[in-house]
Amino acid sequence: MFALARFLLRSYTRKHAYFAPLAASLIAMFLLYSYKPNPVMDSYAVTSVFLFIGAAWMGKTFLNHGSPQQEQLHIIHIGSMKKYLLSQLLALILPVVFCTVIFILFPILTHMFAEPVSFHMLLLAISGHLIMGLLGIMLSLFFQTAWMPNGARATAVLLIVVIISIGAKSIITLLPSWLAWLRWILPPVSPIMDGLLNTNKTFTFLEVWGFLGYGLMYFLAAGALYMYLSARRDART
Amino acid sequence: MAIEDLTGEEACELVALYDADKIYGKRKVLQNLTLAVVAGQCTALVGKNGSGKSTLLRMLAGLTRPTSGRRWVRSEKLVTGYVPERFPPFSFTPAEFLLSAAEVRGIDKAAAEKEMNGFLEQLGMDRFVHVRMTQFSKGMLQKINLIQAMMGGPELLLLDEPLSGLDVKAQEDLLRVLVSLKRDGTAIVMSVHESTLIEQIADRVLLMKNGQVVQETRGDRLAAPAVTRIVLRGLDPAAVREISAHSGVANYEIRMDVCEMEAWSDSTDLIIREILDSGGSIVSVIPQEGMGIHLREWLQPSELLTEGDLYKCLP
């Protein structure tokens, strides 16, 4: 699977489809840090949302970068659809880790923060970025061509879900109570962002870890559902 | 439709379909297919476009699941090679792509390099091993497509129109490689439009129509050696008898001012040359292929020896 993940990443980077989402995420980060000093956790909360959006965008371009025949060959070479899907996921995690490293280290190395970053803050920030990135990837899985052949519609719906996920806290309060269950099907971007923004203010460290744990559980559950459904689909034609 | 006695060859079966249907929306692409693929056997699928050949190949490969019915595989680790009809436009060199594919399959790097170089040489692609495939012609891409499928010693080789885009020399080279793989026990299933491949390598031909196998032609009828009927004139009976003494002539008949001669196809060129050297002239050359005549309407004549091409050569 590592060999296929490596090949997929090489194939993706040679098509330069990664450039737009990566550039957009970095530009957003540079804009955020265009002045200083900045509050630590508030800044990290915002960059983690950038990573969520960037990962969803990158995930969609990554999953759609190959032709149906390329997918067929990969499945044949690796021996099963399940292994192919896992290789794709593996390949997608690497850019998230790469972006996490940049988003975490850049403000520290360029002295953008008003206060020193404590070890606990750093741990929360790293976990927050990784989980937000994973949630972005997870969302893109359901909007790839194999699931939604109409690319324009897939992009539109993905954008709507991204927007609603980010603004879920406010949007849910506006909805009638019988629609409150919607919060449970949306990726928990809003509570994680809220938790990171208000670390040691409204929420204790433990509570923020709870939000992150929920995000991880959501990713794992949605990932398991995706694997279950996708392993039973035909290769694209 | 049951097309084969599955119990008779179960011991060597690699993959089988039982009453398999494939439905896309309201369209039945495959209907009630029962088929077993046996080690060392070559099966050719013929039929018009849209008859279900490619879907059947994908289903045998495990890329498409039957809507109803069952696909059985001897082992989940069955080594399969698959040649899709269109090769994806990779921006890699053949070496990068083929070695990566071999690594994904778990083939040792040194062994993969040796095997890759062998195939590239056999198909005349060794000079292009480090050239980006974006610069390749259709035929060159098809060769890489074939090599990726043949690497790693596949037990099952599924070829969707393998001769597509290949020149005559490459077709001959490919044929040699396929014969060698088949001899080593590889099961081959291919969708073809050319009679060459069927004559030379197929053990059975399945004629497909509307997602069903409507006819199966097997063994002897395909293996029958091909003869070419040569109609000539301008030679006296003694000269005809002299030429017909050649071992390449199967039969001859003198009628009025013309003579009909049946030559084994591999001796046709030689016999024609002898006729011309003896002062005779050729009226017509008609290849008589070994397969059942009923399949002909679904195939293109062999590119190696087409009737039309020979007529063009005649004075």
Question: What report would you give on this structure?
Answer:
Chain B: Residues 15-235 form the ABC transporter domain. Chain B: It comes from Paenibacillus mangrovi. Chain B: This is ABC transporter ATP-binding protein. Chain B: Keywords: ATP-binding, Nucleotide-binding, Transport. The longest helix of chain A has 29 residues, at 81-109. Chain A has one domain. The two termini of chain A are 23 Å apart. Chain A is mainly alpha-helical and 237 residues long. In chain A, helix 6 runs antiparallel to helix 10 (189-197). Chain A has 11 helices and no strands. Chain B has 315 residues and is of the alpha/beta class. Chain B folds into 2 domains: 6-222, P-loop containing nucleotide triphosphate hydrolases (Rossmann fold, 3-Layer(aba) Sandwich), CATH 3.40.50; 223-313, 2-Layer Sandwich (Alpha-Beta Plaits). Chain B contains 10 helices and 13 strands. In chain B, strands 5-6-7-3-8-9 form a 6-stranded mixed beta sheet, sandwiched between helices. A 4-stranded antiparallel beta sheet of chain B has the order 11-12-10-13. A 3-stranded antiparallel beta sheet of chain B has the order 2-1-4, covered by helices on one side. The relative contact order of chain B is 0.13.
